[in-house]
Amino acid sequence: MNRTATDKPSQVVRPDDVLTISVNRRIRVLKILDPGKRRGPAEEAQALYEDLTPEDEAPAPARGLMTPTPVARRIPGDGRPTKRERRETDQLRGRDR
């Protein structure tokens, strides 16, 4: 906050404070315009700060880099091997104790 590192999870912010934060492995610089009176919708919250993030550090949607994270798929019913199956596999590979 204001070029000073803080390790507190909660910090009082005032108008004109500048926050440098890491969001989704990207650095964002935000200037607080108004602390707000209530917790409300995102559109209302976005009016409470100004984004000062340099163009080359802009969030992924602004640069068109948002790609979905691949999800590992498996065949239903095909989970971890049972203890018996694991012993048989170890025996086949010559790792029996």
Fold and architecture overview:
The structure is a single chain. This protein is an alpha+beta fold. The protein has a domain at 1-62. Helices cover 20% and strands 16% of the residues. It contains three helices and three strands; from the N terminus they run ββαβαα. The protein has helices at residues 42-46, 60-63, 83-92; strands at 18-23, 26-32, 49-51. Strands 1-2-3 form a three-stranded antiparallel beta sheet, with no helix packed on it. Strand 1 (18-23) and strand 2 form a beta hairpin. It is elongated, with a radius of gyration of 25 Å. The chain starts with 17 loop residues before the first strand and ends in a 5-residue tail after the last helix. The relative contact order is 0.11.
Average pLDDT number: 80
Radius of gyration: 25 Å
By DSSP, the count of extended strands is 3
Largest sheet features: 3 strands, antiparallel
User: SSE order, as H and E?
Assistant: EEHEHH
- What percent of the residues sit in helical stretches (DSSP H or I)? 10-25%
Morphology:
elongated
Beta fraction: 15-25%
Q: Termini, distance in Å?
A: 58 Å
Spatial order of the strands forming the largest sheet: 1-2-3
Low-confidence stretches: none
> How many DSSP H or I helices?
3
What is the SS-derived class? Answer: alpha+beta
Provide the fold topology:
Layout: E1 18-23, E2 26-32, H1 42-46, E3 49-51, H2 60-63, H3 83-92
Antiparallel strand pairs: 1-2, 2-3
